[in-house]
Write a structure and sequence with these properties.
The structure holds 2 protein chains of 2 kinds. Chain A is of the alpha/beta class. Chain A has 2 domains: 144 residues, Thiolase/Chalcone synthase (Peroxisomal Thiolase, Chain A, domain 1, 3-Layer(aba) Sandwich), CATH 3.40.47; 229 residues, Thiolase/Chalcone synthase (Peroxisomal Thiolase, Chain A, domain 1, 3-Layer(aba) Sandwich), CATH 3.40.47.10. Helix content of chain A is 36%, strand content 16%. In chain A, a hairpin with a 4-residue loop joins β8 and β9. The model of chain B has no long low-confidence stretch (mean pLDDT 94). The chains are: A alpha/beta, B alpha/beta. Chains A and B meet through α5 of A and α4 and α5 of B.
Chain lengths: 404, 446
Amino acid sequence: MTAGYNTVSMGTGRSSFHPKKPRPMLEDYIKEAGQHVLEQIGGADHVDECVIANFIAARYNKQANLAAFFPFIDEGLTNKPCVRVEGACATGGLGLATGIKTILSETADVVLVVGVEVQNSVKAVYGADILSAAGWYRERKEGHAHFFPGKFSDRAGAYFQKYGREKTRQAMALWYRNAIENARLCPTAQEYENKTTELEKLAFTEPDPNTFVDHLNVYDCSKVSDGASAIAIMSEEGLKRCGIAKKDAVEITGLGQAVYDLTRSPKDPVWLHTTEAAVKKAFRMAEIAHEDLVTVECHDCFTIAAVMAVEAIGFAAPGKGTDFILQGNTSHKGKIPFNTTGGLIGWGHPTGATGVHQAVTIWEQLTRKAEDAQIKIPRNKFHALSVNMGGDDKTLVAIVYKKA
Amino acid sequence: MAMNYLEKLENVTVLGAAGKMGRGILLLTAMEMLRQKLKPENHKRQFVLYAMDVDNSALDELMGYVRNEALKYGEKNIVTLRKHYQHRSDLIDNEEIIREYVRNLTELIRPGTRIEPAFDSRIIFEALSERPDLKVDLMLTINRNSRLRPWFFSNTSSIPIVWLDEQAGLEGRIMGLHFYNPPPTQKLVEVIKTESTNPGLSYFVAEFVKNTGKVSVPSYDVAGFIGNGYFMREILYAESLVNDLQKSFSFSEAVYIVNKVSRDFLLRPMGIFQLVDYVGIDGVQFIMSVMNSYITGENIHSAFIDKMMVLGSHGGQKPDGSPRNGFFSYEKGKITGVFDTGKQRYISVDEIAPAGDEYIGSLPVSWKPWKELVRHPHKGSLLGVYFDELKEKTSPGAVMAKDYLQKYREIGTGLVKNKVAFRFDDVNAVVMHGFQHVYGPVNPYI
């Protein structure tokens, strides 16, 4: 993978965002992200195939048939094979997986992957309806008004009950603080301009079930975001064609995909089984262990999801993810920095783009292009991991990256 | 009692429904009706809310207002609404539920310009303009033509309830229920009963106030009640300060100074003349004139307000809630100019501020903005520190603020002494809930 690009993650928190004023639309984000990748790889002629990852523009933007937007990025993409993929919040990861498999099938040497979502077209209260499509539609009636916060609030409640509320809330608050502090290092992050001084205090705001959910407050949740991310996936032949040095690319050494029955409740509310399954597959393919990793991008759509991801990925035993976070291991200067540009809570969560954004962040880190957000890359470590989750641990894509 | 409350609530008329107070009372009533109707045991009850006003176009605007407010309420309270509509298997998305809520709410309301539908109502909310003859005329007509012996709740802010009762021949079936503007969001309701008020009305009000999330404060039946009893007298005091200041300053500068001291030094959301603009200079003049006709031994009249009525704009609010020009001109809610009665135009606040600010002097170091203080969990101790510091200051602004606070207390205690309010706490509650002050007139600070 190479030549990544992220647009700004637009939404509340960015000073230029105003819900009633005109702002970039779906095709604008696609074009911006796509063109910046094409510039880095020498133009559209070098591209063999394209993948667009988008969850649900048909409802947010009244727009389907997104694959046909590629020639809008550049006329040179006209008549190229293009496809759109969807898997809720794991859409971006599926886009990458599709691109990787296309390369592996040797039908293409250069695949352009664009992930995009524009969600501020409707108020959050209506966006909750749209996002609930990531769950089983028959659960919507009984579900919470804020459907997914409701799902993860239930998980948080179960986790509190099993492992204790106080320490878990402390870990969730520290996760929030790390997310915002990391976002302040990345100019495209939605929380880049966040100037709040007492972040953990804010994160301890008591949940209000009358207006939101039982066990989470709004700071425990990723925001509503607009944005796009794009990256090129290439074979070695593709790198040569585009004149890109190996040091400017990362190698994909592991891919793990997994799904769980959408109609069923989680096997255990305090454990992310599908995440665990996908990560194990990716690790097996890459033949690595946890100590080989330099950084991780995990799917922290909610702070409690981050706590559980730390455990499901295998960095901590069940119920010990809180200690792992509280010991500072996941912070920017920690043993294994997570979500170095803020993750979903800090950078933003334009759903279809998120998986691609994770890949771009890891590509930037491993090729030392992350500027202010750059973490230290030890000489003896080569790998990084992204975990992209769709729905309530239903559709998972885990990818292992290796620096050149 | 609950049964009686619901029976009464099933058929209600709001008189003056398209006015700024009437529309708020109508909305609150419609929301309460629907809240009741959505309870499983009340699904079969029929609720009807007649919205009466004189002008059809105003009624059209009213229905637009109701739809907008219902939509905003639905969006903000979707967690509760989903529970209310749990029984409706056809309503799944938030959007469907909110739309249904708006539809159900507007369906309760029957707008009209004729009085006859009110003859079928058991409850009449009166929110007409403060014209005693009009109020009496309509209540009299309804009372004569109805066989239901309806209960009347008047939103008057200035006319004694006993007078309305006698003139309209209501035999104790009337109570004062004085909402603050805007009724849907302002917590305070002043409740006024007379010696002959039917006790049933008090029970209804208690239930209605509780269910609509309001805070009720009882007041004696004295013209102006507690809220305007306080407010009108403070305007007269502020006028006297402006008159004194005009020995050294222009009218505009004097208004600027008194407004700024009453806002900033007294830690209020608005200065006294901003508040007059918010209520409307015409409204203030009218309330004073009505109060003056009932109150003896005191002249509730302002030459100053009369002058503004002749020369200047009259304040109040635009349909979107932004302020209209009055003592001040406004842009995006901020003061941009001060009216000059001599030149009969607004002078830019930038021209006036230097002289005014120099005279006023600096605020105490421990000063905090109203917004920060009003919901601060330790506001009592912060106020203590602030006022201790203010006491030591000798700048003209600080001296004026201290005198103002003395007068504030005098007005507050006077309302209890003159049997307008029952208790000092009631005065404080009205001022704090109705005027959003951080502290009431009867306070330990000065």
